Amino acid sequence: MSTERVVGIGAGAAGLDPVYERGGTGTASELPTTDMVLNIGPQHPATHGVLRLRLTLDGERIVHCEPIIGYMHRGAEKLFEVRDYRQIIVLANRHDWLSAFCNELGVVGAVERMMGLEVPVRAVWLRTLLAELNRVLNHLMFLGSYPLELGAITPVFYAFRERETIQAVMEELSGGRMHYMFNRVGGLKEDLPYGWLPRAAAASAAVRRRLPDIENLVLGNEIFRARTVGVGRLSPELIASYGVSGPIARASGVDADLRRDEPYLAYDELARDGVLRVVTRTEGDCFARFSVLLEQVKVSLDLVDACIDRLLSMPAGPVNVRLPKILKVPEGQTYYWTENPLGINGYYLVSRGDKTPWRLKLRSASFNNISVLPEMLPDTIVADMIAILGSMFFVVGDIDK
Protein backbone atom coordinates (compact mmCIF):
# COMPACT_ATOMS: atom_id res chain seq x y z
CA MET A 1 0.00 0.00 0.00
CA SER A 2 1.38 3.42 -0.89
CA THR A 3 0.29 6.99 -0.48
CA GLU A 4 0.77 10.04 -2.67
CA ARG A 5 0.64 13.60 -1.40
CA VAL A 6 1.46 17.07 -2.63
CA VAL A 7 4.69 18.54 -1.29
CA GLY A 8 4.53 22.30 -0.90
CA ILE A 9 6.72 23.58 -3.73
CA GLY A 10 5.12 26.43 -5.66
CA ALA A 11 4.76 26.25 -9.41
CA GLY A 12 6.63 29.50 -9.83
CA ALA A 13 9.67 28.56 -7.77
CA ALA A 14 12.68 27.78 -9.94
CA GLY A 15 10.49 26.47 -12.73
CA LEU A 16 9.03 23.68 -10.56
CA ASP A 17 5.43 22.50 -10.68
CA PRO A 18 3.81 20.91 -7.60
CA VAL A 19 5.49 17.63 -6.78
CA TYR A 20 4.17 14.46 -5.23
CA GLU A 21 5.65 12.19 -2.58
CA ARG A 22 5.08 8.49 -2.51
CA GLY A 23 5.64 6.41 0.58
CA GLY A 24 5.11 2.82 1.68
CA THR A 25 4.20 0.99 4.89
CA GLY A 26 6.64 -1.92 4.46
CA THR A 27 10.03 -2.51 6.07
CA ALA A 28 12.24 0.15 7.56
CA SER A 29 14.55 -0.06 4.50
CA GLU A 30 11.87 1.47 2.30
CA LEU A 31 12.43 5.20 1.74
CA PRO A 32 9.81 7.66 0.56
CA THR A 33 10.33 8.76 -3.04
CA THR A 34 9.30 11.97 -4.72
CA ASP A 35 8.12 12.64 -8.26
CA MET A 36 9.13 16.14 -9.27
CA VAL A 37 7.72 17.95 -12.31
CA LEU A 38 10.51 20.05 -13.80
CA ASN A 39 10.28 22.49 -16.68
CA ILE A 40 13.28 22.50 -19.00
CA GLY A 41 12.86 25.74 -20.89
CA PRO A 42 11.36 27.59 -22.56
CA GLN A 43 14.62 29.55 -22.17
CA HIS A 44 17.27 26.87 -21.90
CA PRO A 45 20.57 26.88 -23.83
CA ALA A 46 20.31 23.19 -24.75
CA THR A 47 17.02 23.41 -26.65
CA HIS A 48 18.01 25.13 -29.95
CA GLY A 49 15.33 27.76 -29.49
CA VAL A 50 12.20 28.31 -27.46
CA LEU A 51 11.16 24.73 -26.68
CA ARG A 52 9.81 23.53 -23.34
CA LEU A 53 10.07 20.01 -21.96
CA ARG A 54 7.90 19.12 -18.98
CA LEU A 55 9.72 16.31 -17.20
CA THR A 56 8.42 14.14 -14.41
CA LEU A 57 11.43 13.01 -12.37
CA ASP A 58 12.01 10.32 -9.80
CA GLY A 59 15.24 11.64 -8.35
CA GLU A 60 17.42 12.25 -11.40
CA ARG A 61 15.64 9.65 -13.48
CA ILE A 62 13.03 10.76 -16.02
CA VAL A 63 9.66 9.07 -15.64
CA HIS A 64 7.72 11.03 -18.26
CA CYS A 65 8.45 13.71 -20.86
CA GLU A 66 5.98 16.08 -22.50
CA PRO A 67 7.32 18.41 -25.21
CA ILE A 68 5.36 21.68 -25.14
CA ILE A 69 5.65 23.54 -28.42
CA GLY A 70 4.19 26.64 -30.02
CA TYR A 71 6.26 29.43 -28.48
CA MET A 72 7.59 30.38 -31.94
CA HIS A 73 4.40 29.70 -33.92
CA ARG A 74 3.85 32.43 -36.53
CA GLY A 75 1.03 30.90 -38.55
CA ALA A 76 3.20 30.52 -41.65
CA GLU A 77 0.73 28.22 -43.40
CA LYS A 78 -2.05 30.82 -43.12
CA LEU A 79 0.32 33.56 -44.25
CA PHE A 80 1.04 31.48 -47.36
CA GLU A 81 -2.62 31.76 -48.33
CA VAL A 82 -2.52 35.56 -48.63
CA ARG A 83 0.80 35.81 -50.51
CA ASP A 84 1.32 35.25 -54.20
CA TYR A 85 3.66 32.48 -55.30
CA ARG A 86 6.66 34.79 -55.55
CA GLN A 87 6.12 36.23 -52.07
CA ILE A 88 5.71 32.82 -50.43
CA ILE A 89 9.37 31.98 -51.05
CA VAL A 90 10.56 34.65 -48.61
CA LEU A 91 8.39 33.13 -45.86
CA ALA A 92 9.16 29.51 -46.66
CA ASN A 93 12.91 29.85 -46.21
CA ARG A 94 12.53 30.87 -42.56
CA HIS A 95 10.97 27.93 -40.71
CA ASP A 96 14.31 26.07 -40.68
CA TRP A 97 16.67 29.02 -40.70
CA LEU A 98 19.68 26.74 -41.19
CA SER A 99 18.28 25.28 -44.44
CA ALA A 100 16.83 28.31 -46.19
CA PHE A 101 17.76 27.39 -49.76
CA CYS A 102 16.47 23.84 -49.37
CA ASN A 103 13.19 25.17 -47.93
CA GLU A 104 12.68 27.31 -51.04
CA LEU A 105 13.06 24.28 -53.30
CA GLY A 106 9.87 22.65 -52.03
CA VAL A 107 7.71 25.67 -52.82
CA VAL A 108 9.05 26.34 -56.31
CA GLY A 109 9.08 22.61 -57.10
CA ALA A 110 5.37 22.27 -56.23
CA VAL A 111 4.40 25.32 -58.31
CA GLU A 112 6.52 24.21 -61.28
CA ARG A 113 4.92 20.77 -61.22
CA MET A 114 1.40 22.25 -61.17
CA MET A 115 2.23 24.60 -64.05
CA GLY A 116 4.10 21.98 -66.07
CA LEU A 117 7.23 24.14 -66.21
CA GLU A 118 10.50 22.66 -67.39
CA VAL A 119 13.42 24.33 -65.61
CA PRO A 120 16.57 24.98 -67.70
CA VAL A 121 19.22 22.30 -67.20
CA ARG A 122 21.76 24.85 -65.98
CA ALA A 123 19.34 25.92 -63.23
CA VAL A 124 18.78 22.27 -62.25
CA TRP A 125 22.49 21.70 -61.65
CA LEU A 126 22.92 25.05 -59.92
CA ARG A 127 20.03 24.27 -57.58
CA THR A 128 21.60 20.92 -56.73
CA LEU A 129 24.96 22.56 -56.03
CA LEU A 130 23.47 25.24 -53.78
CA ALA A 131 21.26 22.73 -51.95
CA GLU A 132 24.33 20.67 -51.03
CA LEU A 133 26.29 23.74 -49.93
CA ASN A 134 23.32 24.62 -47.73
CA ARG A 135 23.31 21.05 -46.34
CA VAL A 136 26.98 21.42 -45.39
CA LEU A 137 26.22 24.70 -43.60
CA ASN A 138 23.38 23.07 -41.65
CA HIS A 139 25.42 20.06 -40.58
CA LEU A 140 28.44 22.12 -39.56
CA MET A 141 26.25 24.10 -37.16
CA PHE A 142 25.20 20.94 -35.33
CA LEU A 143 28.69 19.43 -35.49
CA GLY A 144 29.88 22.47 -33.55
CA SER A 145 26.95 23.05 -31.23
CA TYR A 146 26.40 19.45 -30.09
CA PRO A 147 29.81 19.02 -28.40
CA LEU A 148 29.26 22.48 -26.88
CA GLU A 149 26.12 21.22 -25.15
CA LEU A 150 28.17 18.38 -23.65
CA GLY A 151 30.79 20.78 -22.30
CA ALA A 152 33.34 20.92 -25.15
CA ILE A 153 33.74 24.48 -26.41
CA THR A 154 36.64 24.03 -28.86
CA PRO A 155 34.82 22.20 -31.73
CA VAL A 156 32.41 25.08 -32.31
CA PHE A 157 35.30 27.34 -33.36
CA TYR A 158 36.45 24.81 -35.94
CA ALA A 159 32.90 24.29 -37.23
CA PHE A 160 32.26 28.02 -37.57
CA ARG A 161 35.54 28.49 -39.42
CA GLU A 162 34.29 26.03 -42.03
CA ARG A 163 30.84 27.63 -42.05
CA GLU A 164 32.34 31.03 -42.80
CA THR A 165 34.28 29.54 -45.71
CA ILE A 166 31.05 28.29 -47.30
CA GLN A 167 29.05 31.35 -46.23
CA ALA A 168 31.45 33.60 -48.16
CA VAL A 169 30.60 32.02 -51.52
CA MET A 170 26.87 31.76 -50.72
CA GLU A 171 26.76 35.41 -49.73
CA GLU A 172 28.67 36.46 -52.84
CA LEU A 173 26.14 34.64 -54.98
CA SER A 174 22.86 35.61 -53.34
CA GLY A 175 23.59 38.62 -51.15
CA GLY A 176 22.17 36.81 -48.11
CA ARG A 177 23.87 34.97 -45.27
CA MET A 178 20.92 32.89 -44.09
CA HIS A 179 17.79 33.75 -46.09
CA TYR A 180 19.03 33.54 -49.65
CA MET A 181 15.84 34.19 -51.67
CA PHE A 182 17.69 32.90 -54.72
CA ASN A 183 15.10 30.45 -56.05
CA ARG A 184 12.39 31.60 -58.40
CA VAL A 185 9.47 29.75 -59.95
CA GLY A 186 11.01 28.46 -63.17
CA GLY A 187 14.65 28.63 -62.09
CA LEU A 188 16.93 30.98 -60.19
CA LYS A 189 17.14 34.71 -59.58
CA GLU A 190 20.17 35.23 -61.83
CA ASP A 191 23.29 33.56 -63.19
CA LEU A 192 26.56 33.17 -61.30
CA PRO A 193 29.04 36.01 -60.77
CA TYR A 194 32.16 35.79 -62.94
CA GLY A 195 34.68 33.33 -61.49
CA TRP A 196 32.30 32.05 -58.80
CA LEU A 197 32.59 28.34 -59.64
CA PRO A 198 36.38 28.18 -59.07
CA ARG A 199 35.93 30.06 -55.79
CA ALA A 200 33.21 27.60 -54.71
CA ALA A 201 35.52 24.70 -55.64
CA ALA A 202 38.30 26.23 -53.53
CA ALA A 203 35.92 26.64 -50.57
CA SER A 204 34.82 22.99 -50.88
CA ALA A 205 38.45 21.83 -50.99
CA ALA A 206 39.35 23.93 -47.93
CA VAL A 207 36.48 22.52 -45.87
CA ARG A 208 37.28 18.96 -46.96
CA ARG A 209 40.95 19.43 -46.05
CA ARG A 210 40.17 20.77 -42.56
CA LEU A 211 37.21 18.53 -41.70
CA PRO A 212 39.48 15.91 -40.05
CA ASP A 213 40.26 18.54 -37.40
CA ILE A 214 36.69 18.27 -36.12
CA GLU A 215 36.63 14.50 -36.57
CA ASN A 216 39.84 13.94 -34.62
CA LEU A 217 38.84 16.42 -31.94
CA VAL A 218 35.46 14.89 -31.18
CA LEU A 219 35.03 11.26 -32.28
CA GLY A 220 38.07 9.98 -30.40
CA ASN A 221 37.44 12.01 -27.27
CA GLU A 222 36.81 9.63 -24.38
CA ILE A 223 34.50 12.06 -22.57
CA PHE A 224 32.39 12.60 -25.69
CA ARG A 225 32.18 8.84 -26.26
CA ALA A 226 31.21 8.22 -22.64
CA ARG A 227 28.36 10.72 -22.95
CA THR A 228 27.05 9.44 -26.31
CA VAL A 229 27.85 5.75 -26.96
CA GLY A 230 24.82 3.64 -26.04
CA VAL A 231 22.85 6.69 -24.94
CA GLY A 232 19.47 7.54 -26.44
CA ARG A 233 18.98 4.50 -28.64
CA LEU A 234 16.18 4.89 -31.17
CA SER A 235 14.73 1.79 -32.80
CA PRO A 236 13.60 1.54 -36.45
CA GLU A 237 10.12 0.66 -35.19
CA LEU A 238 9.80 3.96 -33.33
CA ILE A 239 11.16 5.80 -36.35
CA ALA A 240 8.42 4.29 -38.53
CA SER A 241 5.73 5.02 -35.92
CA TYR A 242 6.61 8.70 -35.56
CA GLY A 243 7.74 9.50 -39.09
CA VAL A 244 11.27 10.38 -38.02
CA SER A 245 13.52 11.00 -41.03
CA GLY A 246 16.87 12.34 -42.14
CA PRO A 247 20.19 11.69 -40.37
CA ILE A 248 18.41 10.59 -37.19
CA ALA A 249 16.58 7.78 -38.98
CA ARG A 250 19.64 6.71 -40.98
CA ALA A 251 21.68 6.47 -37.77
CA SER A 252 19.28 3.71 -36.68
CA GLY A 253 19.74 1.71 -39.87
CA VAL A 254 16.78 3.12 -41.83
CA ASP A 255 18.19 3.26 -45.36
CA ALA A 256 15.98 6.03 -46.78
CA ASP A 257 16.92 9.17 -48.67
CA LEU A 258 14.59 10.96 -51.11
CA ARG A 259 17.54 12.14 -53.18
CA ARG A 260 18.08 8.51 -54.18
CA ASP A 261 14.65 6.94 -53.64
CA GLU A 262 12.50 9.60 -55.36
CA PRO A 263 15.07 11.74 -57.16
CA TYR A 264 14.57 15.40 -57.92
CA LEU A 265 16.90 18.03 -59.42
CA ALA A 266 20.08 16.27 -60.68
CA TYR A 267 20.25 13.63 -57.94
CA ASP A 268 19.17 10.80 -60.21
CA GLU A 269 22.24 11.22 -62.41
CA LEU A 270 24.51 11.74 -59.39
CA ALA A 271 23.21 8.50 -57.83
CA ARG A 272 23.79 6.56 -61.06
CA ASP A 273 27.35 7.89 -61.20
CA GLY A 274 27.96 6.67 -57.64
CA VAL A 275 28.60 10.14 -56.24
CA LEU A 276 25.49 10.14 -54.04
CA ARG A 277 25.93 7.71 -51.15
CA VAL A 278 23.38 7.20 -48.37
CA VAL A 279 25.19 7.12 -45.03
CA THR A 280 23.72 4.76 -42.41
CA ARG A 281 24.64 3.35 -39.01
CA THR A 282 22.94 0.62 -37.01
CA GLU A 283 23.56 1.62 -33.38
CA GLY A 284 20.87 4.31 -33.24
CA ASP A 285 22.50 6.15 -30.33
CA CYS A 286 23.74 9.72 -29.89
CA PHE A 287 27.22 8.82 -31.16
CA ALA A 288 25.81 7.24 -34.33
CA ARG A 289 23.71 10.31 -35.06
CA PHE A 290 26.74 12.59 -34.76
CA SER A 291 28.82 10.20 -36.87
CA VAL A 292 26.20 10.14 -39.65
CA LEU A 293 26.10 13.93 -39.71
CA LEU A 294 29.88 14.15 -40.06
CA GLU A 295 29.98 11.56 -42.85
CA GLN A 296 27.15 13.29 -44.68
CA VAL A 297 29.24 16.46 -44.89
CA LYS A 298 31.84 14.47 -46.84
CA VAL A 299 29.16 13.11 -49.19
CA SER A 300 27.75 16.60 -49.75
CA LEU A 301 31.21 17.92 -50.60
CA ASP A 302 31.52 15.10 -53.16
CA LEU A 303 28.21 16.20 -54.66
CA VAL A 304 29.32 19.84 -54.67
CA ASP A 305 32.50 18.95 -56.57
CA ALA A 306 30.56 16.86 -59.10
CA CYS A 307 28.07 19.69 -59.73
CA ILE A 308 30.88 22.21 -60.16
CA ASP A 309 32.64 19.94 -62.67
CA ARG A 310 29.40 19.53 -64.62
CA LEU A 311 28.67 23.27 -64.65
CA LEU A 312 32.21 24.12 -65.75
CA SER A 313 31.81 21.82 -68.76
CA MET A 314 28.36 23.15 -69.59
CA PRO A 315 27.86 25.92 -72.19
CA ALA A 316 26.33 29.19 -71.06
CA GLY A 317 22.57 29.20 -71.00
CA PRO A 318 19.48 30.53 -69.23
CA VAL A 319 18.86 29.89 -65.53
CA ASN A 320 15.13 30.67 -65.54
CA VAL A 321 12.07 30.86 -67.77
CA ARG A 322 10.00 33.92 -68.58
CA LEU A 323 6.78 34.10 -66.58
CA PRO A 324 3.73 36.36 -66.78
CA LYS A 325 3.63 39.38 -64.49
CA ILE A 326 0.73 37.87 -62.56
CA LEU A 327 1.47 34.22 -61.85
CA LYS A 328 -1.56 31.96 -61.51
CA VAL A 329 -1.35 28.22 -60.83
CA PRO A 330 -3.91 25.95 -62.54
CA GLU A 331 -6.61 24.40 -60.39
CA GLY A 332 -5.51 21.15 -58.76
CA GLN A 333 -3.32 19.76 -56.03
CA THR A 334 0.12 18.23 -55.57
CA TYR A 335 2.52 17.12 -52.86
CA TYR A 336 6.20 17.91 -53.38
CA TRP A 337 8.77 16.63 -50.92
CA THR A 338 12.52 16.98 -50.66
CA GLU A 339 15.33 15.56 -48.54
CA ASN A 340 16.12 18.58 -46.39
CA PRO A 341 19.24 18.56 -44.19
CA LEU A 342 17.14 17.62 -41.13
CA GLY A 343 14.85 15.15 -42.91
CA ILE A 344 11.77 15.04 -45.13
CA ASN A 345 10.31 18.45 -45.97
CA GLY A 346 7.02 18.41 -47.87
CA TYR A 347 4.56 20.96 -49.25
CA TYR A 348 0.96 20.02 -50.06
CA LEU A 349 -0.32 22.65 -52.47
CA VAL A 350 -4.01 23.08 -53.35
CA SER A 351 -4.87 25.68 -55.98
CA ARG A 352 -8.18 27.05 -57.24
CA GLY A 353 -6.59 28.83 -60.16
CA ASP A 354 -5.79 32.06 -58.31
CA LYS A 355 -2.53 33.95 -57.81
CA THR A 356 -2.42 32.73 -54.21
CA PRO A 357 -2.71 29.12 -52.98
CA TRP A 358 -6.01 28.00 -51.52
CA ARG A 359 -3.99 25.81 -49.13
CA LEU A 360 -0.28 25.19 -48.66
CA LYS A 361 0.45 22.67 -45.90
CA LEU A 362 4.00 22.26 -44.66
CA ARG A 363 5.35 18.94 -43.39
CA SER A 364 8.54 19.83 -41.55
CA ALA A 365 11.24 17.38 -40.47
CA SER A 366 11.80 18.76 -36.97
CA PHE A 367 8.20 18.29 -35.80
CA ASN A 368 8.30 14.51 -36.29
CA ASN A 369 11.87 14.22 -35.05
CA ILE A 370 11.02 15.88 -31.74
CA SER A 371 7.70 14.04 -31.31
CA VAL A 372 9.53 10.82 -30.47
CA LEU A 373 11.13 12.28 -27.31
CA PRO A 374 8.39 10.97 -24.93
CA GLU A 375 9.37 7.45 -26.03
CA MET A 376 13.14 8.03 -25.79
CA LEU A 377 13.59 9.93 -22.52
CA PRO A 378 11.76 7.83 -19.88
CA ASP A 379 14.16 5.80 -17.70
CA THR A 380 17.14 8.04 -18.61
CA ILE A 381 18.79 10.55 -16.30
CA VAL A 382 18.65 14.32 -16.72
CA ALA A 383 22.29 14.59 -17.81
CA ASP A 384 21.63 12.12 -20.63
CA MET A 385 18.53 14.11 -21.59
CA ILE A 386 20.81 16.97 -22.69
CA ALA A 387 22.88 14.58 -24.80
CA ILE A 388 19.78 13.02 -26.38
CA LEU A 389 18.04 16.32 -27.04
CA GLY A 390 21.08 17.82 -28.75
CA SER A 391 21.50 14.74 -30.95
CA MET A 392 17.98 15.03 -32.37
CA PHE A 393 19.16 17.90 -34.64
CA PHE A 394 16.07 20.10 -34.79
CA VAL A 395 15.28 23.76 -35.28
CA VAL A 396 12.39 25.05 -33.17
CA GLY A 397 11.03 27.27 -35.94
CA ASP A 398 10.77 24.13 -38.04
CA ILE A 399 8.62 22.55 -35.30
CA ASP A 400 6.30 25.49 -34.64
CA LYS A 401 6.06 26.99 -38.16
Automatic annotation (TrEMBL):
It catalyses: a quinone + NADH + 5 H(+)(in) = a quinol + NAD(+) + 4 H(+)(out). Its EC number is 7.1.1.-. Keywords: Cell membrane, Membrane, NAD, Quinone, Translocase, Transport. It is a peripheral membrane protein. It comes from the Bacteria. InterPro entries: NADH_Q_OxRdtase_suD, NADH_UbQ_OxRdtase_49kDa_CS, NDH1_su_D/H, NiFe-Hase_large. Its main location: membrane. PROSITE patterns: COMPLEX1_49K. Residues 150-326, 327-401 form the NADH-quinone oxidoreductase subunit D domain. It is found in: Cell membrane. Belongs to the complex I 49 kDa subunit family. NDH-1 is composed of 14 different subunits. Subunits NuoB, C, D, E, F, and G constitute the peripheral sector of the complex. NDH-1 shuttles electrons from NADH, via FMN and iron-sulfur (Fe-S) centers, to quinones in the respiratory chain. The immediate electron acceptor for the enzyme in this species is believed to be a menaquinone. Couples the redox reaction to proton translocation (for every two electrons transferred, four hydrogen ions are translocated across the cytoplasmic membrane), and thus conserves the redox energy in a proton gradient. HAMAP family: NDH1_NuoD. This is NADH-quinone oxidoreductase subunit D. It comes from Kribbella alba.
